[in-house]
Design a protein that fits this description.
about 45% strand; isomerase; 4 helices; globular; 18-stranded mixed β-sheet; 2 domains; Diaminopimelate Epimerase, Chain A, domain 1; alpha+beta; diaminopimelate epimerase activity; cytoplasm
Amino acid sequence: MRLHFTKMEGLGNDYVYVNCFKEKVEHPSELAVRVSDRHFGIGSDGLILIKPSEVADFKMDMYNADGTQSEMCGNGIRCVGKYVYDYGLTDKTSVSIETLAGIKYLEFTFGDEEKNGRKTVELVRVNMGAPILAPEDVPVDLPDAGDIVQDYPIMVAGKEYRITCVSMGNPHCVSFVDDVDNFPLEEVGPLFENNPIFPRRVNAEFVELVSPTYAKMRVWERGTGETLACGTGTCATAVACILNGKTEDEVTVKLLGGELIIRWDRDANIIYMTGPAKVVFDGEIEV
């Protein structure tokens, strides 16, 4: 059987997308491993399935490159938004997407390119909901940390890191470093991901402050490794920056794949993420 797919990317965080209104996927974890292989597969950070939903306009199921399922992906959900509009699944300029982290709300900004006689989506603004800070809900197992894990010292590979833990529907651990470009992420990232204080593993973000409105970040994603961008991780990074008094409530975060704009409306307790989404190519694969 041949499976139709679309490869898309948000700031280089690339996934294989399958329209499950038309296609049938029986073993998504196995398929995720296969398509993600950059030598023998399509090459991606994972697999995202676009499905019907009983509670929202659409449903997004996300699988990492190792086949594990994740609750949410910020770059991935922007691409889902672009897909459902550009490929004619909806005429709405704002949509709701069901995820394992709850329903997310998307608004589209259109560019100059056209597909099927109408403008295509260039930028997507996502209402990411409220950041989750309670340690048991992140989750992170640090009984003496208090109500939130903020600027908390831990030792990793003989070095002290001061961590702030945030869930955006999936767990994140943010640390501030002096030089993120030369940070030994491949060595330190797995030690964070698999640290026993994180019962569901963790996505680890390492952040260098540039100004009160600008930061640089690299990310080690659980189940995948270093990626060019992580939308939920960028949201968690902005929350950590603001909680620790390092930036203003709106901050541009530079990742390896580009920039995202994150704003924390603290009155409403909502995180807004704005960034691009792009189609790489359409194709078929034998399954």
